[in-house]
Design a protein that fits this description.
This protein is 44% helix and 11% strand. The chain has 336 residues and is α/β, with parallel strands linked by helices. The chain has two domains: 3-236, TIM Barrel (Alpha-Beta Barrel); 243-332, no CATH class. Strands 1, 2, 3, 4, 5, 6, 7, 8 and 9 form a nine-stranded parallel β-sheet that branches. Helix 9 links the parallel strand 7 (165-169) and strand 8 (197-200). The protein starts with a helix and ends with a helix. Residues 321-336 have low confidence and may be disordered.
Length: 336
């Protein structure tokens, strides 16, 4: 049994890769909440092959990160092979993932993301190059197709190339995130596939995740985990956490963010997440407005307390000056 089979057999959902969101602090938080594994933000194979260190930093694991899975976007098998080799050498991930689902124009115009679904042979060559160069399992994350469902021939080409798992968002590229995700083609693929198949799209709670698992499909949660990382705990325990528990998770996220990026950077990079938390906790908009002004963990605590939320601040929040592999002890001991 391979890595993906073993983890999915535990009945856990998986954190999907999301540019701008699945950085090291959020991956750690979601793993603490019960995610089976967590995929990094996508990184450019071409940039990595060209030696770009800033791109490499996007894929950096937190110290001791278990089950690291790094996502690449690529249009050239040679670039993908070099990037895979470099990532395995530098970070020792348990697996790599190929992005074949991103519908953003700047990615598609490079021949990457969902554009690869229009060329199954090229996609298969990239997967094969990644597996051979990296020597680790490779998954691929797809959509149903470009504007119609063309999932099966693409999946078959990847399976023949040796892909180890498939994750499918239940919308076409043209839909982006409009309408409802269609899990029917995903379940049909899972029923006949020799490799694990995961679905994603519109899963926002434990009930929704478990109902899809009951049909033999693994579950990957992306946007549904933003502002709701406790969803992974819901999948395991079957109950929604209390407001007090939600607030603890929010503060924990702020602490991990500062521990990773440093106090000078503050919480600027967390504001997108904070807006999502505010939507879950407060329908009036007051909390979201308060979060716009925060720069420190204490600011977050004060904003919550001022609106009557129960807060249990940590006595000694950890700090880490940068994520370039410095102050490992502070990060590694951040609340363990």
């Amino acid at each position: 049994m391979g890595f993906f089979d073993e983890r999915l057999a535990e009945g856990r959902a998986v954190l999907a890769p999301m540019a701008g969101f699945t950085d090291a602090p959020f991956r750690r938080l979601c793993r603490e909440q019960g995610s089976a594994w967590a995929v990094t933000e996508m990184v450019s194979a071409k940039a990595l092959a060209g030696g770009d260190e800033r791109t490499l930093a996007i894929a950096a694991p937190y110290p001791g990160e278990p089950d690291l899975v790094i996502q690449l976007f690529a249009s050239d098998p040679d670039d993908a092979a070099r990037a895979a080799e470099l990532l395995v050498e530098r970070f020792d991930p348990v697996a790599l993932d190929l992005n074949m689902g991103c519908p953003v124009k700047k990615i598609v115009n490079k021949g990457c993301g969902v554009e690869l679904m229009g060329d199954p042979n090229l996609a298969a060559r990239i997967v094969k190059a990644m597996r051979e160069a990296g020597g680790v399992p490779v998954s691929a994350k797809l959509r149903l197709g470009w504007d119609t469902v063309t999932l099966d021939p693409v999946a078959d080409a990847l399976i023949e190339a040796g892909v180890d798992a498939l994750a499918v968002h239940g919308r076409t590229a043209q839909q982006k995130y409009d309408g409802e995700a269609d899990w029917t083609p995903i379940a049909a693929l899972a029923a006949r596939s020799p490799v694990p198949v995961l679905g994603s799209g519109d899963v926002t709670d434990g009930v929704g995740a478990r109902s899809r698992m009951a049909h033999g499909v693994g579950v990957m949660i992306g946007r549904g985990a933003l502002g709701r990382p406790w969803t992974f705990a819901e999948v395991l325990r079957g109950e929604r956490p209390s407001v007090e528990a939600m607030v603890r998770v929010l503060v924990r996220h702020a602490e991990l963010h500062v521990a990773w990026y440093g106090s000078e950077a503050g919480l600027r990079g967390l504001r997108g997440h904070l807006a999502k938390y505010a939507m879950q906790l407060d329908g009036s908009g007051s909390l979201r407005n308060a979060f716009v002004q925060v720069n420190t963990v204490q600011d977050v605590v004060q904003a919550l307390a001022s609106l009557g939320y129960p807060v249990e601040p940590r006595a000694n929040p950890p700090e880490r000056p940068a994520h370039a592999h410095a102050s490992v002890d502070a990060w590694a001991n951040a609340g363990d």
